[in-house]
Amino acid sequence: MRGNVWWRVLIPLMWVGLLVPWTWALLVPIPRDVVERVGGSAMSFIISKTLHGGVYATLGFLSLLLPLSLRWRLVVVALVIAHGGATEYLQQFVQRGSSWRDFALDTSGVLVGVGLFFVGRRYLFGVLPEVKLQADRAEEHGDAADLR
Fold it and tell me: What is the pLDDT of residues 77-100, one digit of tens each?
């Protein structure tokens, strides 16, 4: 039970703690001196694309760990994908490039995170059985309405 309280607090905090600064980072112009400091435009491109995929994969994974019913976690995953599209659209107004390719990369990252969640779910919950979410238990027993 004690671990479950941490689970219900820590995962949402990690999710918000990643989403908020990531949104901010995507919506501010990139200073030219930063591009030069990381090794030029080619290295900046590699770092940028790796971050896009990695952060969205992490958000996709964390979305499925949120203490919600599976249905709502899938809604959150869809919202994270929409977030990728919205930030790409808004980047054109802050002197950054808006790209369908980046949106596809963001979406792919989310789907990789979702895939990792489902592949690792048995292992993760086998090692830490106390973190199985109460909402998941309720869905299994048909009384999920009590937890919403």
Answer: 999 999 999 999 999 998 887 889
Tally of structural domains, the chain: 1
Contact 55, 18 (CB under 8 A): yes
Determine the Cα–Cα distance for residues 30 and 50; give it in Å rounded to an integer: 16
pTM of the model as a whole: 0.77
% helix, strand, coil for the chain, step of 5? 80, 0, 20
| Three-state secondary-structure class, residue 37 | helix
**19-28 per-position pLDDT tens digit:** 999 999 999 9
DSSP state of 88: H
Containing structural domain, residue 46: 2-147
What does the alpha-carbon distance between residue 82 and residue 75 come to, in Å, rounded to a whole number? 10
Distance, in Å, from the CA atom of 81 to the CA atom of 103, rounded to the nearest integer, reads 8
